Amino acid sequence: MAVGGAAQAGEWQDPADVLNNLLEANPDSAYLHQSEMNIMMMPDNPALWVADDGEELFYQERGPNNASLESCDFGKGPGVLDGAYVELPRYFEDVGKVMDFEQRLVHCMKEIQGFDEDDAAVAQRHGSGSDIMQLTTYIAMQSSGMEWQPQNDHPEEQALIAAGEKLFFRRGGAQDFNCAACHGQSGKRIRASVLPQMRNSQEWTKAVSWPAQRAGHDNVRSQNHRIRGCVWQMRHAAIKPDSMANTALIAFWNDAARGEPAILPDLKR
Question: What would you measure as the largest C-alpha separation in the chain, in angstroms?
């Protein structure tokens, strides 16, 4: 059930309203209430400007094939964006595998628009000025307030969620860390930052609500960027975008927030 019963799976909500509902439903969550300034800034989130740029890019005919992305199928039919982001990762028949959002977007940019792997439009994945981040922010925003429902009917979808859970709890690296070291219990901190608890789905929906403007970075960041940052902080070997390991972690992350409304885009520390 959505927070406070305010939103059903198919309803769009302003991200600031989604956050306010979460705050009202969880008055004692130190994690959700820790950034008073960011909460106040949500109606003027700089990520909204990035989404505007992404909308222009989505409908623009570009690339060697001079095509828009309107024929890209994110799982709900060509060009259908409402609710698509929160249902990913999912299995796609046309490629015979499970894809996360960024992986699917890059696939469409290559197959539909004709971009090459080395073209800046595809190769540059991070930063508010990148095509990928602008498109991600616009497309994700069309699912704001809708419940996380990563697909889990296909055996490969189920396998990826299970693999992501294994990775989440698997210790490794120079410091013998895992994701659960920070997110397996409530009350954990890194310096002044209160960390979300993975088993608290109403904290976790905010934790996985990327893209988000990171105030400390002055850039919009994605789920993939957050995974890269976490892996680096744990001193694990780098994880490659578009890899099964990356998709598996996203699948498990989103599944842990299942049934909770997504804040898209969010504004974080």
Answer: 53
